[in-house]
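Researcher: Quick test of sequence recovery. Tokens follow.
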């Protein structure tokens, strides 16, 4: 699950750098500016159309990579679903996983340190400046590619950094627990063989 989520975040970053032509073939890709519009809820946290579409473009890209082509037969079967249904399910599954991890991070009061926030801001500034030289142009490109406003886009990626920090923390704890379990097992084997 962790590896799947990290791969999804990496692919999301890649998707941002290019427009995926197939995204227009899905009815759910309609962009909206209404903050009350959402496609699902995770607990009380709403999943906006923009967030869903962001993950949908990622799912589309993964399927295109799987087939090795942008020209995918979206009626082809994948896991007993059409490719388009599978992309929509994958997008929803991934955004739900993301929202759950974000809720866990918030419950654990995980935030970015000053150094992490500075790194985030530097990376975001670098990315945005590579897109365009003015905030208005950056906003237009981000809105066109993702459906997010510039502030929503920055907030979304800030949340992604926080989720990544949570998952790193959980991975370290898991590794320590596994090491402890292995040590305990080895000690038990040594005592048992005596």
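Model:
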């Amino acid at each position: 699950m962790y590896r799947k989520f990290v791969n999804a975040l990496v692919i999301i970053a890649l998707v941002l750098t290019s427009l995926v032509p197939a995204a227009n073939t899905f009815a759910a890709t309609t962009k909206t500016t209404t903050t009350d519009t959402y496609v699902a809820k995770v607990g009380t946290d709403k999943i906006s159309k923009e967030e869903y579409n962001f993950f949908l473009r990622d799912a589309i890209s993964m399927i295109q990579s799987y087939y090795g082509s942008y020209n995918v037969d979206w009626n082809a079967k994948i896991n007993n679903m059409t490719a388009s249904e599978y992309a929509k399910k994958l997008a929803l599954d991934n955004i739900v996983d993301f929202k759950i991890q974000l809720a866990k991070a918030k419950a654990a009061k995980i935030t970015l340190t000053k150094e992490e926030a500075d790194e985030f801001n530097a990376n975001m500034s670098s990315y945005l400046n590579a897109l365009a030289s003015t905030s208005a142009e950056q906003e237009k490109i981000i809105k066109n590619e993702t459906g997010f406003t510039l502030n929503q886009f920055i907030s979304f990626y800030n949340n992604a950094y926080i989720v990544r920090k949570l998952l790193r923390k959980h991975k370290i704890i898991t590794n320590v627990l596994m090491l402890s379990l292995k040590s305990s097992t080895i000690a038990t084997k040594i005592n048992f063989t005596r």
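The two ends are 40 Å apart (CA to CA).
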